[in-house]
Design goal:
Elements lengths: L4 E3 L7 H5 L11 H11 L2 E2 L1 E5 L2 E3 L2 E5 L3 E6 L9 E2 L10 H10 L3 E5 L12 E9 L3 H6 L3 H12 L3 E5 L2 H17 L7 H10 L6 E8 L2 E11 L2 E9 L8 H15 L4 E8 L3 H8 L4 E11 L4 E2 L9 H5 L3 H15 L1
Parallel strand pairs: 6-8, 13-14
Antiparallel strand pairs: 1-3, 2-5, 3-4, 4-7, 5-6, 8-15, 9-14, 9-15, 10-11, 11-12, 12-13, 15-16
Length: about 350
């Protein structure tokens, strides 16, 4: 059995410096993001040093609704194992499985692209888009004509762009976030979650809110994170009544050009559902490359990976709920979902 060492990144000196030396690091590995998740939802860190050169990030979700399990990582689009010195991790270490059973976890959830062999069953499939940052001029030349048209609309409409890390900007974004989640028939995360993002991410210069205004009214906005030379888009929202003004494109282009001039080398657009063709086209229109993103679930009782399950069809019911009830649903349910 492989020897396992449990690491808590919130009590590990120099954790973020260590993360930056890994092959496939991301903002989701950072202590700031782990702190946001743990303080927002009560999760417990359980990062495993599975070999001398590999760390598997996990947070324990202990829920009376969904059971006790470990996720790598909750509310994170992707979270590969941290690999060092060109090492590899092609299977779950025996020591991790043994520890998980003793701990009483039902299953292990992995949101990683590089850990398992192709024949391993996939629990759910998505795509993600990544843009290599060069120069603003070169990036603009690679924009799809529809995106260029939307940027021209934004300029001609007199949209104003605000880049901020303030709590006020976070609140303004959250109003758009709730409006968008209502339209998508999905409960919004509680504002306490975004307050923790402000407290541990924005306040420490590790992310930002970008808002587009029309006649002093916020009509589109997004939340961005960065670590090292990697930047990413995490949340986006808009007022559908102003969709023709090009606000979403203007916000995204502002983020891309700022991160480019600040020395970042990649910009990730995050996870997208396979059937969301409109969002996939929007992200690809900035010149981003699309790649598969697979999630895996290992069931500890049966000792095997599980196939995915179809959705439950609750969206139509949620769409009818007024926003106050949707917000209550988010307050009650998100910590159990992970």
């Amino acid at each position: 059995m492989n020897k396992i060492e449990i690491i808590d990144p919130l009590d590990f000196p120099g954790w973020d410096d260590l993360v930056l030396t890994a092959c496939e690091y991301s903002f989701f590995h950072s202590s700031a993001w782990v702190r946001v998740l743990c303080e927002s939802y009560g999760y417990k860190p359980a990062f495993f040093a599975a070999t001398p050169t590999a760390i598997v990030p996990l947070l324990e979700v202990n829920s009376f609704l969904t059971g006790r399990r470990a996720v790598s990582l909750p509310f994170s689009d992707y979270c590969d194992p941290l690999l060092f010195d060109n090492s590899s991790l092609s299977a779950i270490p025996d020591g991790l499985i043994d520890f998980s059973r003793k701990t009483g976890w039902k299953h292990l959830d992995f949101r990683a692209q590089t850990i398992f062999a192709p024949e391993v069953p996939v629990f759910s499939r998505y795509v993600r888009h990544t843009l290599k940052l060069t120069t603003p001029e070169q990036l603009f030349s690679e924009l799809h004509k529809n995106t260029v048209r939307n940027l021209k609309k934004a300029r001609s409409s007199g949209l104003e762009i605000e880049v901020s890390g303030s709590l006020e900007a976070t609140r303004k974004y959250y109003k758009l976030h709730c409006l968008t989640r209502k339209r998508q028939a999905t409960p919004p995360q509680p504002f306490s979650f975004f307050r923790k993002i402000y407290e541990h991410v924005f306040s420490h210069g590790k992310g930002r809110v970008i808002l587009a205004y029309h006649e002093h009214k916020p009509i589109a906005g997004a939340v961005f994170f960065h670590l090292g030379k990697k930047a990413m888009y995490k949340f986006g929202a808009s007022d559908l009544a102003y969709s023709a003004l090009g606000g979403n494109a203007a916000v995204m282009w502002e983020a891309i050009t700022r991160y480019t001039t600040e020395g970042c080398t990649t910009f990730c657009f995050g996870r997208t559902d396979l059937d969301n063709e409109g969002l996939r086209r929007f992200k690809a229109s900035f010149g981003a490359a699309e790649e598969p993103l697979c999630y895996y679930r290992y069931d500890l009782k049966s000792a095997k990976f599980l196939e995915g399950h179809p959705g439950t069809g609750t969206h139509q019911l949620l769409r009818r709920l007024p926003m106050p009830l949707l917000r209550i649903a988010g307050e009650l349910l998100y910590r159990h979902v992970g």
